[in-house]
Amino acid sequence: MQQIAENVWILRYSLPLLGHDLGRVVTLIRLRSGKLVIHSTAPFSAEDVAAIGQLGEPTWLVDATLFHDSFAKEAQPAFPKLSYLAPRRFEEVATVETLPLAPAPNEWAGELEVIPLAGMPKVQEHVLFHLPSRTLIVCDFFFNFGVSGSAWRRFVVRHVMRLQKGIGMSLFFRLMIKDRAAFRESVRPILALNFDRIIVGHGDVIEADAQRMLGQELEARDLLPPVRVIE
After folding, report:
1. What is the mean pLDDT of residues 124-131?
2. pTM for the whole thing?
3. Is the N end or the C end of the chain the one with fewer CB atoms within 10 Å?
4. Superfamily (CATH) of domain 2-220
């Protein structure tokens, strides 16, 4: 377990894909009440459950995209009493019972915001923002793999995911955007946030210049929202 900021930790798990380990990052957020939000599911061991419990009171289990169902059936029994929050239709994909992720629970007010990405009906990713630590938490919206690793890993990242410097929005994610105008509008509130870092669902935490990097990537992909003219 690695502490990223005050009341924010991550756990890392293996997730093989295309012959390399894509990895799964689980984010733990402790609210002022002491209650914990577990963002993303994984094959939690008994030791993991005990370690998480040492941080606070596990209260919510979250999967924030339809594409993060890999460990849903394993994770729910590890935390059977938690409210499991996910996008609509996640139940159909993962065949586990869930509650809607948006709107966010009232207990999160002032600490943890939920922003849905629009125009991606098969993905329905929701971005979380932890206000106290100014941390954006994403699933597949943004990756950060860098340029290291095996030759095969570098090939997959650069030529399959089309991340030239190992960071940004993957080709597959961009192909899932079916309504670009709706997507552009949905990122407007994200760009208006004051965030320092991005915790990605796969890869390394972006600790510096995160807001500028996200804006530049959206601009490069022609996905920035249009400027609103005030008359």
Report:
1. 97
2. 0.91
3. C
4. Ribonuclease Z/Hydroxyacylglutathione hydrolase-like (3.60.15.10)
